[in-house]
Amino acid sequence: MPPLAPLAAWCAILLLAATGCLFRAEDPPTPSPDQYDQRMTVTMDAFRFAPSTFQFTKGQTVAFDLAAVDSHHTFTVPELGIQWKVCKGRTLPVRYQFTSAGNYRLSCSIEGHDDAGMLGFISVR
């Protein structure tokens, strides 16, 4: 009978890969200090974003540290092409430049999360 430890390790790796929680080439790199105008941490926990309301200036580059505390979550703004998935217990550093003025709806696209109130708003002036 083969040892179970290697089999369990492979199962864990396959599970992480299936949920998209392994580092992938398309995950954005950690921004360096000179590549953004503002840095902020957004906590995703208990079906809410904290903070949930954001105000930025057109052309502003923001470095976000997105922390998923209790579950997998997304930081999703379809109108801006933003769809960032963060795995439970992890923090994802991302950088984004706001090039279009407007008011945008932020949500978590994990099934049932936005219905539970996991929403926010971004205003770009």
Number of strands: 9
Poorly predicted ranges: 23-29
CATH hierarchy: architecture:
Sandwich
Please bin the fraction of helical residues.
10-25%
Provide the spatial order of strands within the biggest beta sheet. Answer: 2-1-4-7
Instruction: Output the number of helix runs.
Output: 1
Name the CATH homologous superfamily: Cupredoxins -  blue copper proteins
**Secondary-structure element pattern, one letter each:** HEEEEEEEEE
Mean pLDDT over all positions = 85
Largest sheet: 4 strands, mixed
Structural class: mainly beta
CATH topology type: Immunoglobulin-like
Overall morphology: globular
Instruction: Determine and state the CATH class.
Output: Mainly Beta
Number of domains: 1
Beta-strand content bin: 35-45%
- Gap between N and C termini, in Å? 65 Å
Radius of gyration: 17 Å
